[in-house]
Design a protein that fits this description.
heterodimer, A: 426 residues, alpha/beta, Aconitase, domain 3, five-stranded parallel beta sheet, 18 strands, 33% helix, globular, B: 187 residues, Aconitase, domain 4, seven-stranded mixed beta sheet, 18% strand
């Protein structure tokens, strides 16, 4: 008779795989060996740290992935120098997964290029590394010193997290989207509702959603403090990996939670009763119905970020904006998540629709969400599809950021005031 | 890191001094705005620590040794400079009701003592809001307002990182030890 093993969560399995340990329980601390160490614009800080250490060999250059996304293209001589340092370092060290300023947002670029696969353990110099759960990987954010340490030692200490199930069922009403689901959850659970937890998303609604929408779930789980997020890989995942990322099913190992695994909590949401949501200044858990703040004057609308600037996000915005014009005095800034998204939106006419409506399209990258371009003056307000509305994040400390779905953002760009998309979509 | 004399007492890992208190869910964009992440210099970053909250808060920060906060301190961006800028401003410890996990890691990894002790935060608030706070991270105690509170001690690996002044100095010390061992073996 085989040994009985206690049922395990996804997080337990992923950390056991990455650490080579078995029988791990929440709270235990082990050394884990990540499959990928992602560093974005912070890469130059890692390189400088490595130089300070006097180390010149890497544990495994093939696990290093660098993406020049937060400040792209360079905005001054300093940042141009930082980019050059990374470019030259990647060449010298034989780092083949180097993506330059033209590529787009690291998370999206890595997933599109087949670097993120089910079952992997991935660390990144970005809190939204939780997004890799959209493909069934364990993704979590760390600082640049930890990425540098992983470059050298190949490992980092990690605490096995408790897990929470988030079950979402039902079809969403017209005008509500994945972003509204997440804003509802963030508002209900709070900015630390999932701190240190592994958030496993499930339910009929989640299972029916695209990889892009799953990215939105897993990305925004961070705004409740989650350590990582996860959607169980299925046929949708397999098709995305094969068709979009060029990864066959023999290129990864799917890890599924066991029936009967222990969860700290189960959160249940009925999607069919949802209404469009909006996070108001200056915290992401300050969530209200769009209708409660409709009519609020806007100076700018930003459609961008790793939360909501993928192809389907731009398409939703274009569908709302088609045949309309952006309101007088409002800047509509659209920053595609990646160059691949931008190319597809160009081929399908989505970009033309946006431009004809009065949008300005920037190069792919983090853009205004990271405070680069699309800044606000004192007293101004932006409605953004990004994941953070913290004070001063987009320019003046005396400006305001609201967060919504692309549909709400597009509808509001037409009217110049916060608007429920159902009103425009008819 | 700090321009001031270290307040650590000989033989003990006791650090602390005057407090500056913040509320809940203080995010890293407020601690150090993204526009200053082009630097990794603690002194330069300290100039801009808590800039969105205005010069009075910044002045008080520089006169303090311990940041005290409510739940979820350091939420948001994974920027390591949120810990570095506090060290640059002369802060030696952050005592909070709870931390965002990335900030907690970044604090330990940069040598900033981060202690979860809601009881101490509540006691300081009850005693008028500001005063002094002292942390002994070896013993796992926080003293404030004439009372001492315990906190769950760090796992030994984290304690070693803190003692070495952060993750990178800790690794460098390890590399040095390995080299010395290799040299001895070669002799």
């Amino acid at each position: 008779m085989s040994t009985l093993t206690a049922p395990r969560t996804f997080a337990q399995k992923a950390i056991e795989r990455a650490s080579g340990e078995s029988g791990l329980a929440p709270g235990q601390i082990v050394d884990a060996f990540p499959d990928v160490y992602m560093s974005h614009t912070a890469s130059w800080r890692c390189i400088r740290t490595l130089e300070r250490m006097g180390v010149s060999t890497l544990y495994d250059p093939d696990r290093v992935a660098m993406v020049m996304d937060h400040i792209s293209p360079a905005m001054n001589a300093k940042t141009a120098g930082d980019h050059r340092l990374c470019r030259e370092f990647a060449d010298r060290m034989g780092i083949k997964n180097f993506y330059d300023v033209n590529a787009g947002i690291a998370h999206i670029v890595l997933m599109e290029n087949g670097l993120i696969r089910p079952g992997q353990f991935v660390i990144g110099t970005d809190s939204h590394s939780t997004i890799y759960g959209a493909l069934g990987a364990f993704g979590t954010g760390v600082g640049f010193s930890e990425i540098t340490a992983a470059w050298v030692t190949g490992k980092l200490w990690v605490k096995v997290p408790e897990s929470v199930r988030v079950e979402i069922d039902g079809e969403l009403p017209v005008g509500s989207y994945a972003k509204d689901v997440m804003l509802k959850l963030i508002g209900d659970l709070g900015a630390d509702g999932l701190t240190y937890c592994s958030a496993e998303f499930g339910g009929s609604y989640v299972r029916s959603r695209s990889v892009s929408e799953r990215m939105t779930f897993c990305n925004l789980a961070m705004e409740m403090g989650a350590k990582n997020a996860y959607v169980a890989p299925d046929e949708t995942t397999r098709a995305y990996l094969a068709d979009e990322a060029g990864v066959g099913a023999d290129g990864y190992e799917v890890l599924l939670p066991d029936a009967g695994a222990e969860y700290r909590d189960t959160v249940v949401l009925d999607g069919s009763t949802l209404t469009p949501k909006i996070a108001v200044p200056h915290t992401v858990d300050n969530v209200v119905d769009v209708d409660e703040v409709s009519g609020t004057r806007l100076d700018q609308v930003f459609i961008g970020s790793c939360a909501n600037a993928k192809y389907d996000d731009l398409e939703i915005a274009a569908d709302v904006l088609k045949g309309h014009k952006v309101a007088h005095g409002v800047r509509l800034v659209v920053t595609p998540a990646s160059s691949a998204v931008m190319a597809k939106a160009s081929r399908t006419g989505v970009l033309a629709t946006l431009v004809e409506a009065g949008a300005m399209i920037t190069n792919a990258g983090c853009g205004a969400c990271a405070g680069n371009g699309g800044a606000m003056a004192d007293g101004e307000a932006t409605l953004s599809t990004a994941n953070r509305n913290f004070q001063g994040r987009m320019g003046s400390y005396d400006s305001r950021i609201y967060l919504s779905s692309p549909a709400t953002a597009a509808a509001s760009a037409i009217t110049g005031v916060i608007t429920n998309p159902a009103e425009v979509m008819g | 890191m700090s321009s001031r004399e270290p307040a650590e007492q000989p033989g003990r890992h006791r650090i602390g001094g005057p407090t500056i208190t913040f509320g809940e869910s203080v995010n890293t964009d407020v601690i150090i705005p993204g526009r200053y992440l082009v630097s990794i210099d603690p002194a330069e970053l300290a100039e801009h620590a808590f800039e969105p909250l205005g010069p009075e808060v910044q002045r008080r920060l520089r006169a303090s040794r311990v940041v005290v906060a409510g739940r979820n301190f350091g939420c948001g961006s994974a920027r390591e400079q949120a810990a570095t800028c506090l060290l640059g401003a002369g802060i030696q410890a952050v005592v909070a009701a709870s931390f965002s996990r990335v900030f907690f890691r970044n604090a330990i990894n940069t040598g900033l003592v981060a202690v979860e002790c809601p009881e101490a935060v509540t006691a300081l608030a009850a005693a008028g809001g500001e005063g002094e706070m002292w942390v002994d991270y070896d013993e796992g105690t926080v003293e404030t307002s004439g009372r001492t509170f315990g906190f769950a001690p760090y796992p030994s690996g984290l304690k070693e990182i803190l003692r070495d002044g952060g993750l990178i100095p800790h690794l460098m010390r390890g590399i040095e030890r390995d080299e010395q061992r290799e040299e001895r073996a070669a002799r």
